[in-house]
């Protein structure tokens, strides 16, 4: 599943980069005489109520999902590193104050906070990226803080402090490199959540404004009005969104299984293969069912 998710993730990257070359038409080109036309050789996924090619709009919608997913996830990673590392390493009253602020943010439903903030500011791609990145970075700082607390008492860090190394050097040379595994895991598993959240906001009317072809926006508005007459208008965008989120999520889950020390070796929670069980059984003179149970 991780391999399939990786293939889907790579395809998403390629579609996002080469969207102008892959789309047969522009995302907002109106074919007035072909409104609500079903899938055909000319329009592979049919057309919407205005006569726009759904395939072209889905391709550009995947491009928007890729841009928002990568940019917001990158911002969230930076925010959680700053908050988590400083809070976990400095500790004391600073950690207490910061964590109460994080608690206050996390106690509210994330989607409600995003809707309120975006309704106050002007909805645009940049604003949505910033709001999603900061909001998810604050919540994800707990994981980074826990990782920092787990290593800050190690001897190599205490030795660096004892010889008078500045705090910034300790963080840059000793703390951050040793928590890269949870940082990479957080990055890979957060991206599908960002894509799905952006689609939810666009579906509710708080996302990227039209005429941008966001996957969530393709499922709302007039598409809901005509979905029973032309089901392909919501079928294809919904299917693409589901496949993209599932693929990126499986890829992130596989990355976590590989990088997690408790699941090291690529075995993870999927278990050993039959051939691997037979090899270990032959070497240890133990039945394969005993090895699998252990």
Task: Explain what the structure shows.
The protein is mainly α and 294 residues long. It has one domain: MetI-like (MetI-like fold, Orthogonal Bundle). Helices cover 70% and strands 0% of the residues. The chain has helices spanning 2-17, 19-22, 54-90, 92-106, 110-120, 125-151, 155-162, 167-175, 180-204, 215-218, 222-225, 232-259, 274-284, 288-293. The model is unreliable at 265-270 and 290-294 (pLDDT under 50).
Write the layout of secondary structure elements.
Blueprint: H1 2-17, H2 19-22, H3 54-90, H4 92-106, H5 110-120, H6 125-151, H7 155-162, H8 167-175, H9 180-204, H10 215-218, H11 222-225, H12 232-259, H13 274-284, H14 288-293
Helix pairs in contact: 1-3, 1-12, 3-4, 3-6, 3-9, 3-12, 4-6, 5-6, 6-9, 7-8, 9-12
Short description:
The protein has 294 residues and is mainly α. Helix content is 70%, strand content 0%.
CATH C-level category:
Mainly Alpha
Q: DSSP helix count?
A: 14
What average pLDDT do the residues reach?
A: 81
Alpha-carbon Rg, integer: 24 Å
Task: Offer a few descriptive terms.
single chain; 294 residues; mainly alpha; MetI-like fold; disordered C terminus
